[in-house]
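Discrete fold record:
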Amino acid sequence: MSGADRWLVVGLGNPGPKYAGNRHNAGFMVVESLAARMGARFSSHRSRAELAEGRLVGTPVALVKPRSYMNLSGGPVAGVANYFKVDPARIVVVHDELDIPFGVLRCKRGGGAGGHNGLRSVSASLGTPEYVRVRFGIGRPPGRQDAADFVLTDFSSVERKELGVHVERAADAVETIIAKGLEAAQNLYHAA
């Protein structure tokens, strides 16, 4: 199967149980939901990533969770992209986004890193920022809490009540991008 047919869906996060419920791991949560939809399990790949393969909306997809820390996500992502010969135009990166309120999704292609070190690493390693992003809103930290500390805290108890719905909605957005394109996903998920 050629790389031209396949999509790569990358969830950004930090490895290990210590970080599992963190806001910074929203991307991992979404790709785990997609793996469950595919009936696939993650296993180690030589590119320092966890990989799950299958089909979403009838299309071959490789789901990726880098095993490196967030700031070094690019190496594993580029390694898997090279392994499958997937063009950056067919890569979707799901990540947490401070500049969007909790529960809000935004989808776009390209752009800057906006202070997100995971995105900065992915863009540098792929040699381009021109991949699709599904931005999972986590909102800004309360009061004077430092953003770097905020992203490494778990979702609040109030947020956790709605988190599953938002994770599924982000997974739906990824499937829409693959099946119908970015613009269709923007029309569907930006209005809500």
Summary: Strands lie at 7-11, 43-45, 49-56, 59-66, 91-97, 105-109, 132-137. The CA atoms of residues 33 and 171 lie 7 Å apart.
